[in-house]
Design goal:
With 521 residues, the protein is an alpha+beta fold. It is 28% helix and 23% strand. The protein contains 16 helices and 24 strands. The chain has helices at 3-13, 47-55, 57-68, 112-125, 147-152, 155-159, 171-175, 180-186, 203-217, 221-233, 242-247, 274-277, 283-294, 307-310, 383-397, 404-412; strands at 72-79, 82-93, 96-99, 106-107, 255-258, 261-264, 280-281, 298-299, 302-303, 318-321, 330-332, 337-340, 346-354, 358-365, 370-376, 442-444, 452-457, 460-465, 470-473, 475-478, 481-486, 495-502, 505-508, 518-520. The strands form six sheets. A nine-stranded antiparallel β-sheet has the order 3-2-1-15-14-13-12-11-10, with helices on both faces. The radius of gyration is 23 Å and the shape is globular.
């Protein structure tokens, strides 16, 4: 597995439900792996110890804010049917003194997935659709490259990341400006694993499943989410539309680190993958959602989601990572990481991250009737995961069992590096000359990415591609090889890609993530 694939898988899936920094991995067999044997019943956690842990959240947050410098953070803790802690820290924008509070709205990134799974569960409970409904029953235009998989793949398959699509399928199309329908339509060109044999984390696979659910309801996904979950729970500052986030006065903007200093990031507008990454919310709102989860679908005495429809989402559906270093295998449900704490207690969790400036995470431990959510407006360096892990150490043991900050820092540091084989390489001292630039110009075709135009402008080559479109100047490297740079949600700063020309084609290294990087003239 390459560094890029590891990095993108982490940024989407983040950490497993076992509260350890294991990266979900590829693999699987025709039959689901057996569930682990039940652990011995753990000793009960003293109620006073939980109370003491909650009392230390302020200190946990202050220490992490100081050590990381992350501009803003918000945290909520739910105990039973009550929010027992909700507070903001720091600034919404590093250059503005406006403070973060418990109503500040953050982009949630992949924490959108479990929230969306509860939308689906609500529809399943109402009989509008089932977890095992084939997606083409509602989206007859949708296809995978394997005809049998196209007929059989279900809503649940996409929510468990076992559709056969490759890791992060479609994400680079989104960066090129393609809308949701266009990305989903183009997934048919990707190679696939046999259905249900491999775990591979996808935003747009899950989005396909969600689109089927919304179509069955006769609504768009954002409206369905409002009607199914946000409004019944009173989550008035939560939305699955970017425009609503952008219109909030009290919103936290994303940040990245440049030369050791936090600066505002370029931001991302994730409407195309809204079911997988497009929710924005506050910790006060998310606490209501966590109350509903702990009550298996009830909120304020009302049944919001049918418990039987929700149960499969919170059950092990697909092994997401093998056992390693004495740790058990990691598992994914429908939109949730499903694991156990070190005391052997079942936990549900998910993290979210945008490389351009968001890091979020929550953990629920039903046996303790306890949940925590942490949101930050800095790119993913493990802050929310560290805080949540420290909190549950204090809950279960009254002290830290591991140096979580170091664990998560070490896990993430190499995964945020720029991409490309030429990163850090010096240009050839005596490069072979390029041919006449007109030799390279023209229109190149690629079914998956769409057409590529190569033109000569001011004595240099320029590529234009995508729906937005992207305009990328080319710099000569050696012979028929040129380079271009990118910076977006999938391309971290410093990313360098080769553009290698050969007679009637050009190979673009950055766009070869799924082996489809050749464009034909």
């Amino acid at each position: 597995m390459g560094k890029l694939q590891d990095r993108r898988r982490f940024l989407g899936a983040a950490l497993t439900g076992a509260l350890v920094p294991t990266l979900p991995a590829c693999g699987g067999s025709d039959d689901p792996a057996p569930a682990p044997a039940p652990a011995p019943a753990p000793a009960p956690v003293p109620e006073a110890q939980i109370t003491q842990a909650i009392a230390q959240v302020d200190t946990l947050a202050a220490n992490l804010m100081t050590s990381s410098g992350v501009p803003g953070m918000a945290i909520a803790v739910v105990r039973g049917n009550q929010t027992v802690y909700a507070r903001g820290f720091g600034r919404r924008l590093v250059t503005d003194p406006a403070p973060v509070d418990a109503d500040t709205v953050f982009q949630l990134a992949s924490v959108s997935k479990p929230i969306g799974a509860t939308v689906v569960a609500r529809q399943v409970g109402r009989g509008s659709i089932q977890w095992d409904t084939p997606v083409i029953a509602q989206l007859p235009w949708f296809a995978l490259s394997d005809a049998d998989s196209t007929q059989a793949v279900t809503v649940g398959d996409f929510y468990a990341h076992r559709s056969g699509l490759p890791d992060h399928a479609g994400d680079r199309l989104e960066d090129m400006g393609y809308d949701r329908r266009e990305v989903l339509t183009r997934l048919r060109f990707l190679p696939v694993h046999p259905l249900r044999t491999a775990y591979a984390y996808t935003n747009f696979g899950m989005t396909a499943g969600a689109e089927a659910v919304a179509t069955a309801a006769g609504l768009d996904w954002a409206t369905l989410s409002e009607q199914a979950i946000y409004q019944p729970l009173g989550m008035m500052r939560t939305s699955s539309r970017y425009a609503d986030f952008a219109a909030r006065d009290n919103r936290a903007l994303g940040h990245v680190k440049v030369n050791g200093a936090w600066v505002q990031g370029m931001g991302t507008m994730p409407d195309a993958q809204s079911p997988a990454g497009g929710v924005s919310s506050s910790v006060n709102d998310l606490a209501k959602w966590l109350v509903m989860l702990l009550a298996t679908g009830e909120f304020a005495g009302q049944r919001t989601v049918d418990a039987a429809a929700l149960a499969p989402a919170l059950a092990q559906q697909m092994q997401s990572g093998p056992p390693a270093n004495g740790r058990p295998a990691s598992w994914y449900g429908y939109g949730f990481n499903v694991g156990t704490t070190e005391l052997g207690l079942t936990s549900y969790s998910h993290s979210g991250a945008f490389a351009v400036g968001a890091a979020t995470s929550f953990t629920v431990v039903p046996a303790l009737n306890l949940a925590i959510v942490t949101l930050t407006n800095g790119y993913p360096i493990g802050i929310p995961e560290t805080l949540n892990a420290q909190f549950f150490d204090l809950v279960q043991y009254g002290a830290f069992r591991r140096d979580w900050g170091a664990i998560f820092t070490d896990a993430l540091a190499p995964l945020l590096l720029p991409e490309g084989r030429l990163v850090g390489q010096l240009p050839p001292a005596s490069p072979l000359p390029a041919r006449a630039l007109s030799t390279y110009t023209g229109t190149y075709r690629n079914d998956y990415y769409g057409p590529l135009q190569v033109t000569e402008q001011g004595g240099a080559l320029v590529m234009t591609l995508g729906a937005r479109p992207l305009t990328l100047p080319l710099t000569h490297w050696d012979g028929d090889v040129f380079t271009f740079t990118l910076h977006n949600e999938n391309a971290t700063p410093g990313t360098i890609s080769q553009a290698a020309f050969a007679s009637d084609r050009v190979w673009l290294e950055y766009y070869d993530h799924e082996g489809l990087g050749v464009f034909l003239r």
